[in-house]
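Protein Record: Sequence and Backbone Structure Tokens
======================================================
Tokens: labelled as protein backbone structure tokens, with as many entries as the chain has residues.
Question of interest: how does this chain fold, as expressed in backbone structure tokens?

___
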Amino acid sequence: MAENENGATVKRRQSRYRLVVMNDDTYEEVITFRLSRLSVYVGFSTVFILLVGLTVALLVLTPLKFYIPGYGNNTNRAELQALKIRTDSLEQAISYKDQYLDGLKKTLSGDAPTKLDTSVLNVPKAERIND
């Protein structure tokens, strides 16, 4: 039963129809098309894909993309990148300052485990040059 339905559907899609464009005053045939449901579906699908492709290409490859709300323009995009870089460096500087202040507070309160430097340094004596 499923084969009969599938076969009927395929046969229905491939059956031919005639589309005739006629002059209304003289009833003269201007143009005639022989179509099937499958050819009409393929034609409309092709036209749809071409229109979508052309629209996307037009928006992506031309300056029209700057008219899209929320897209911005080149100067705003460059300024935003510069601000992001500056913000990141400021955040890093604040983090380093906070670490320094935490260490200083621990050292002043005596909470920080400090190691005494007991190594002996061998500092060479400065040579004296006689004139």
